[in-house]
Structure formats: C-alpha cells, structure tokens
Design goal:
By secondary structure, this protein is an alpha+beta fold. The chain has a six-stranded antiparallel beta sheet with strand order 9-8-18-17-14-15, with no helix packed on it. The protein has a five-stranded mixed beta sheet with strand order 11-10-12-13-16, with no helix packed on it. β17 and β18 form a beta hairpin. It is globular, with a radius of gyration of 20 Å.
Length: 258
C-alpha cells in the first residue's frame, strides 16, 4: 500500500471515530434538550451529516470542521430554540467530541438557527459554510450546473446610498467581521449578519440570525428572493439591490423612516 493510500485509510479511521463520538454526544443532548419533540429524531443525524461532509484537512494535518453550521427548523419548532443556552449546549457537545478525536471546531459560536417556512413540523436541515471558500452547501439549494448561468449579470448593491458593491460571486457574506465579502463597519451590524446566495438564477438574501434583523422593502425576512430595486435594510442600514440592465435612476428610492 502506497503512502497516499495509507493516509487515506488513516483519515477514514479518524472520520469514523469522529462520527461515533459526536453521535453519542449530540444524540444525547438532543434527546435531553428536546424531550418528546419530533425534531430531536432528525437533529443529531443532520448535524453529523453536515459536519462529516464539511470536514477538511488543513496544511498541518489537523482535521477541521466547517466554520459555520446553519440549522434550519420549521416555524413549529421556533419556540424550542428560544433559549440560546440550548444552542450553546449543542455547540459544546460538538466541540467536546471533536477535541477527543482531534477535530478542530471554531472557537467562536458556529451554530446558528433559522426558521424555514418551507419545512414541515419535525423537519430540519443543516447548511455548512467555510469562510475561506465562502461556498455554502445545503440539501435543497444545490449548486447550479456549470453550463448554466450562475446568476444575474451585472448585479450590485448600493450601500448606505453612497457605495457601489458589485455582486460577482455565487455566495456573498455580509457583516462586520473583516473576513466577510462585504464588510460594513457599523455597530448595528452583526459580525456575520446576512448572506446573498445565487439560487436558480437569482440572488436570495438570508438573515444569519443577526441581532438587528434583515428587512426587504420594509418587511422583516429570514430569506427573500431579490428583484431589481428592492431595498434591503440590515439593522436599519439601507442597501439597494440592482442589476446592470436596470438604469441606476430606476432603483427604488430609499426613504428613511421618520
């Protein structure tokens, strides 16, 4: 067996150890945190599947977990996750299992919860993201074939009425943290506030469980497909979405609330 094959087998063994330990911890936490709740039956499995798919080996040989996990729940499970300590405990279970088998999880909070109106009661799904690659993976928003247009050409944002930000990537992270694609240095903006993602030929904005919230045309949203002229507000800061085919003067006028 050559060196590459030995390395591959070693990684497989480590992944198996990771999965067994995380499964024990996360399943135990899910059953205890949500006794009798239908969501607990799928929660551990979805989290483990996302972690397994997002594991990657870094240059020093360390196995690293995805930098962000986004747990999508149905509106019926919203009340289950009102207490932030529940999410913190799930994070702690994942970190504990990772430490035992040599998998590195982010030191910062990495598990976020969002409500997806398309999910039925008891259904959950998990999206993973590595900020270094800035590519999100989800079970129902699959990447479009390379032969098809990735998204609207010449899309852009007008930030706070003064700054033009072209949208040139399939996933655009927005927030106060310096590793976001669009960095907004404003105390109202969360570190990872929102994400723009190309889905079936158009941009969709997702609120990443921000503290200040995300609005489109004056209505609070968790996710919303965008049309030219839509006014996005992140904790009150305005961004206007536009496309090249639309003349700049045709964008919707932003009128601050009184």
């Amino acid at each position: 067996m050559n060196r590459q094959s030995i390395k591959s087998e070693t990684i497989k063994e480590r992944l198996a150890q990771v999965e067994r330990r995380l499964q024990a911890l996360v399943e135990g936490s899910a059953r205890r945190l949500f006794p009798g709740a239908q969501v607990s039956e799928l929660l551990a499995g979805r989290l483990l599947e996302a972690v397994r798919e997002g594991l990657h080996e870094e240059a020093d040989g360390q196995l690293a977990a995805p930098e962000q996990l986004i747990l999508f729940i149905s509106p019926g499970e919203r009340e289950l996750f009102k207490d932030p300590r529940l999410v913190e405990e799930l994070e702690a279970a994942l970190r504990s299992g990772g430490n035992e088998v040599g998998v590195c999880f982010s030191e910062e909070p990495f598990l976020q919860v969002q409500v997806d109106a398309a999910l039925a009661t008891g259904e959950v799904r998990v999206a993973t993201q590595n900020h270094t690659s800035a590519i999100a993976q989800t079970s129902d928003l699959a990447a479009e074939p390379a032969s098809e247009p990735k998204g609207p050409e010449g899309a852009f944002l007008i930030v706070d009425g003064t700054r033009l930000f072209p949208l040139e990537q399939p996933v655009v992270n927005i927030g106060r943290r310096p590793d976001n694609h669009l960095v907004i240095d404003d105390a109202r903006i969360s570190r990872t506030h929102a994400q723009l993602r190309q889905v079936r030929g158009q941009y969709v904005i997702f609120d990443l469980d921000s503290s200040g919230g995300t609005w489109v045309n004056g209505k609070p949203v968790r996710q919303q497909a965008l049309q030219p002229g839509d006014v996005i507000q992140l904790a009150g800061l305005p961004l206007v979405y536009g496309q090249e085919s639309q003349r700049l003067g045709e964008t919707q006028e932003y009128v601050p609330e009184a």
